[in-house]
Write a structure and sequence with these properties.
Blueprint: H1 3-25, H2 34-50, E1 74-76, E2 86-87, H3 90-104, E3 110-116, E4 119-126, E5 129-135, E6 141-143, H4 146-149, E7 167-175, H5 178-190, H6 199-207, H7 212-217, E8 221-228, H8 237-246, E9 255-258, H9 261-274, E10 282-289, H10 292-298, E11 308-312, E12 316-329, E13 335-346, E14 349-355, H11 359-365, E15 372-377, E16 384-389, H12 431-442, H13 454-462, H14 477-480, E17 484-488, E18 495-499, H15 502-514, H16 520-526, H17 534-544, H18 547-552, H19 555-560, H20 566-577, H21 579-590, E19 613-617, H22 625-634, E20 638-639, E21 649-652, H23 658-666, E22 670-672, H24 674-681
Parallel strand pairs: 2-11, 19-20, 19-21, 21-22
Antiparallel strand pairs: 1-6, 3-9, 3-10, 4-5, 4-7, 7-8, 10-11, 12-13, 12-15, 13-14, 15-16, 17-18
Helix pairs in contact: 1-2, 12-13, 16-17
This protein binds 2-(butylsulfanyl)adenosine (IVH).
Length: 682
């Protein structure tokens, strides 16, 4: 095929496929069979491979994903993403209506819309093409999730017509339809993963995934509701939505112009009745003043517009039977009681389980197996049991005995003073806790062994090949090759076996090998010491420089390190007092993991402080304590933690400990200020 014909064919296929996409996703009226659709897509992919010069990021072939986002870039919102004031009753809505009337008189109308319960996103289009998609974040700064957004078929990659502004943003909500939510959860349960609590969590978890191929398979959807830009050619919100629909955006038909607050109430009641049949979650209705000019007149408070308000639906409640209570052990050993319920429809999804929080909650409700219970689902929360109907209770029912031993490893549970949660203390011997530790160890921010994802490490654990993290470094080619995992395919019900082939095994071993280069601060984080997160691990690593110094440090030395308080210090001490941990660390050391920080000699900028040692204490005005320490090292000085006769300077900030000062005075160590210090190096 010549280039010209190929280009024409590619253009034709792209247009056809997007039209079919639109018919399927936006109008729910497929115009082609799945098989024929796949044939068109395959043909397009084949031509694009043969003629790579016609690659286009906006081609529908790109919707199947493939892009991996290593780290989501942060983007400043051109217009801050505000939230809305909430109301829960018609009285509060009437008060809102009165405030509006007071500001702009009686001549206005409202637009009522669904309040979509998903993940808010801002889509920017430049010259009719999707430029980027950014999450809300903190309202000022969000994550760039463009590559994942591209896989959502209801987000247009190229706009229709030509009447759109050169540059504009449109905001909306990414939601997970109930059908997809139930399918995903079923799949997760079948492979032993915890189900998502609700569609909103699932949608937001999915949008933060690094592999867009998985995002594409999740079948997310996107509804838009707010157009933003300079000099938009519309005078009302309603008109702008109509235009956005013509450009190809999915705008819900469930909206209405209302001339009075009574009409708003009617809309709310009407949607309240249809809520369960929408196919996705909403948590209320948004009421907006329609005219842009009147919106401007009303303006904003610090957090939200005065021209709009959200009416939130009350939590829905149903009654069902409590079949049994099971106890789950989390990765940290925390025990969560879970109610297994007779399946019941609630706010559009089927609820089979509900959280019971802890022993206190069970005691308070005096909840018993076999009881009829009331289950409630609020906007954001996992369904919970709010009450018990004791009139159905059998004479023979008995109060529930909370477990005393771990359901996974039978260790006696502990409950610390003042805490509501029971814990299994068997950190190194309780299967879910070990699995949690292993998963944490290989995770991206820790040892980054992604060739050994969650599923594979679980398999190795189940087969007894990996019992703790040090075993990872003893894995052999022969023991990995041919390992099998059996999955059940949810759609067909058939079983599927995944077998470790040569390539997989090679990748796993390469990934493990590469992890030997991971720097000490990440290794320390990867060990999973309780309360030692990424930042704390960095502080400890750079303060103590190596694992030996850290493992010998006592309480006083530990709390000298910046940001280390009582809880972390005790947790570190406990960790190194545990002989199993020490044994494991020895094995990891033999496996050549990095156990000391690598001083970057390129960092050295001068020799001005050569041979001088400093103790740094207190708070400084120009630099943080860590920055000061870095300056000392960069100028070839040495930082020590305790004042001794060998110390040259005590660099004293504000609120420095009085013992340090008196010790320095006694030993005649020079006490200098931040300014004195800066004079030494600048
Ligand atoms: S309008 C300036 N319309 O709810 C405010 N928001 O609680 C613009 N939401 O931040 C927002 N459905 O994330 C608007 N039809 C709708 C909405 C909606 C859901 C979300 C949105 C907003 C939050 C406020």
């Amino acid at each position: 095929m010549d280039k010209q014909t190929a280009k024409e064919q590619i253009d034709y296929l792209r247009k056809q496929i997007e039209l079919h996409n639109e018919a399927y996703y936006k109008n729910s009226a497929p115009t082609i069979s799945d098989f024929d659709f796949d044939m068109l897509l395959e043909e397009l992919i084949r031509l694009e491979n043969d003629f790579p010069e016609y690659f286009d990021l906006n081609s529908p072939s790109q919707r199947i994903g493939g892009a991996i986002t290593k780290e989501f870039q942060q983007v400043i919102h051109k217009y801050p993403m505000l939230s809305l004031g909430n109301t829960y009753s018609f009285e509060e809505l009437t008060a809102f209506d009165e405030r509006v009337k007071k500001a702009i008189g009686n001549d206005f109308e409202y637009v009522c819309e669904l309040k979509f319960d998903g993940l808010s996103v801002g889509l920017t289009y430049i010259h009719g093409k999707l430029f980027h998609a950014v999450t809300r974040g903190d309202g000022l700064l969000g994550d760039d999730v463009t590559m994942n957004a591209r896989t959502i078929k209801s987000i247009p990659l190229v706009l229709k017509g030509s009447s759109y502004p050169d540059e504009f943003e449109i905001r909306g909500e990414i939601v997970l339809p109930h059908s997809s939510f139930e399918r995903i959860n079923q799949e997760r349960e079948e492979i032993g993963e915890l189900p998502f609590a609700n569609p909103r969590n699932a949608a937001s978890g999915t949008m933060k995934m690094q592999d867009s191929t998985i995002v594409a398979k999740r079948r997310l959807d996107c509804y838009l509701y707010h157009l933003l830009g300079e000099k938009l050619p519309f005078s009302t919100h309603f008109e702008s939505l109509k235009a956005a629909k013509d450009w190809g955006f999915q705008i819900s038909d469930f909206k209405a112009k209302c001339k009075s607050i009574n009409e708003v109430f009617e809309f709310i009641n009407d949607i309240g009745e249809r809520r369960d049949s929408l196919g996705f979650d909403i948590d209320g209705i948004v009421v907006k003043v329609n005219s842009f000019q009147q919106q401007e007149q009303l303006g904003f408070t610090a957090k939200s517009p005065r021209w709009a308000i959200a009416y939130k639906f009350k939590a829905e409640r149903v009654c069902t039977k409590l079949l049994s209570i099971s106890f789950q052990v989390g990765r940290t050993g925390a025990i969560t009681p879970v109610a297994n319920l007779e399946p019941v429809a609630l706010a559009g999804t089927t609820v089979k389980r509900a959280s019971l929080h802890n022993a206190d909650q069970i005691g308070r409700l005096d909840i018993r197996e076999g009881d009829m219970v009331f289950v409630e689902k609020g906007g954001e929360i996992i369904p919970k049991i709010v009450d018990v109907d004791t009139s159905f209770r059998s004479l023979f029912s008995e109060p529930l005995q909370y477990i005393t031993h771990c359901p996974e490893c039978n260790t006696l549970l502990i409950r610390k003073d003042g805490e509501a949660i029971h814990y299994c203390p068997n950190e190194n011997g309780c299967p879910p806790q070990i699995k949690g530790k292993l998963e944490h160890f290989i995770s991206r921010k820790a040892m980054n062994i992604d060739s050994l994802g969650e599923g594979k490490i679980e398999l190795l654990f189940d087969k007894g090949l990996v019992k703790d993290i040090s075993d990872i470094y003893e894995l052999k080619y022969e023991s990995l090759l041919g390992l099998e995992k059996v999955f059940v395919d949810t759609e067909s019900g058939k079983t599927r076996t995944v077998r470790f082939q040569e390539k997989t095994v090679e990748n796993i071993l390469n990934g493990i090998n590469e992890s030997r280069k991971v720097p000490f601060e990440k290794v320390l984080f990867a060990l999973g010491v309780r309360f030692v997160g990424e930042t704390v691990a960095k502080k400890l690593a750079f303060h103590f420089k190596n694992i030996d110094a850290l493992s010998c440090a006592d309480y006083d030395l530990l709390i000298e390190c910046e940001e280390i308080g009582e809880v972390i210090a005790n947790s570190v001490i406990d960790y190194f007092n545990n002989s199993q941990n020490i044994e494991m660390l020895l094995k990891l050391r033999k496996a050549n993991l990095q156990f000391s920080v690598v001083e970057d000699h390129n960092l050295i900028k001068s020799n001005k402080l050569k041979e001088f040692s400093f103790v740094v204490s207190g708070v400084f005005s120009h630099f943080s304590r860590d920055q000061i320490k870095q300056l000392i090292v960069e100028n070839s000085g040495k930082v020590v933690s305790a004042v001794s006769s060998k110390t040259n300077f005590l660099l004293a900030g504000e609120n420095m400990g009085p013992e340090k000062r008196s010790k320095a005075e006694k030993l005649k160590v020079s006490i200098i200020s931040e300014e004195d210090f800066l004079k030494m190096i600048y």
